[in-house]
C-alpha cells in the first residue's frame, strides 16, 4: 500500500503545480486546457496501474525536465504486476517493465536533459 500512497501523493503534487509551459494570452481554449488534461491522464494512469500510460507520461515529464516526477511514474511501471508488450518508436516490441527500466537508465544518463540553448536566426 506504500506504493499507492506515494503515487497518490505524487499525483496530488502534480495536480497542484501550475502548468510547466507558459501560456500566452489569446491562445485557444484547447491549448489552455492541455495541462489539465495531462494531469487527468496522470491520475487515470496511476489509478488504473497502466504501465503503458505510466511510461508515456513519464517520458513526457522527463522531456519537460520534471525528472523526479518522471522517475516516480517509471518506477511504478517497472514494479507493476500488470505487464504489456509495447512497441517502441523504433518498431521493437518490449516488455513494459524492461521499457520502464530502459527509460530510467536514459534519465540517469541525462538523455532527456533540457537544453538551455535557444535557436537564433
Description:
- This protein has 121 residues and is mainly alpha-helical.
- A two-stranded antiparallel ribbon has the order 1-2.
- The chain starts with a helix and ends in a 13-residue tail after the last helix.
The portion of residues forming beta strands comes to under 5%
If you compute it from the alpha carbons, what radius of gyration comes out, rounded to the nearest whole angstrom?
15 Å
Taking the alpha carbons of the first and last residues, their distance comes to 53 Å
Number of strands: 2
Task: Give the structural class.
Answer: mainly alpha
Average per-residue pLDDT, rounded, comes to: 74
SSE ordering: HHHHHEEH
Number of helices: 6
Q: Largest sheet, if any? A: 2 strands, antiparallel
Stretches where pLDDT is under 50 for at least 5 consecutive residues are 1-9, 11-33
Task: Name a few traits of the molecule.
121 residues, two-stranded antiparallel ribbon, mainly alpha, 5% strand, 60% helix
Brief write-up:
With 121 residues, this protein is mainly α. It has helices at 2-16, 29-32, 34-48, 51-63, 67-79, 96-108; strands at residues 85-87, 93-95.
Blueprint of the fold:
Layout: H1 2-16, H2 29-32, H3 34-48, H4 51-63, H5 67-79, E1 85-87, E2 93-95, H6 96-108
Antiparallel strand pairs: 1-2
Helix pairs in contact: 1-3, 1-5, 3-4, 4-5, 4-6, 5-6
Amino acid at each position: 500500500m506504500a506504493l499507492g500512497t506515494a503515487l497518490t501523493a505524487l499525483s496530488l503534487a502534480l495536480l497542484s503545480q501550475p502548468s510547466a509551459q507558459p501560456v500566452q494570452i489569446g491562445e485557444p481554449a484547447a491549448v489552455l486546457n492541455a495541462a489539465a488534461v495531462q494531469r487527468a491522464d496522470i491520475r487515470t494512469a496511476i489509478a488504473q496501474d497502466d504501465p503503458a500510460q505510466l511510461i508515456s507520461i513519464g517520458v513526457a515529464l522527463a522531456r519537460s525536465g520534471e525528472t523526479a516526477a518522471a522517475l516516480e511514474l517509471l518506477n511504478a511501471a517497472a514494479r507493476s504486476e500488470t505487464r504489456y508488450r509495447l512497441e517502441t518508436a523504433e518498431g521493437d516490441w518490449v516488455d513494459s517493465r524492461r521499457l520502464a527500466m530502459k527509460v530510467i537508465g536514459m534519465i540517469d544518463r541525462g538523455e532527456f536533459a533540457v537544453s538551455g540553448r535557444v535557436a537564433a536566426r
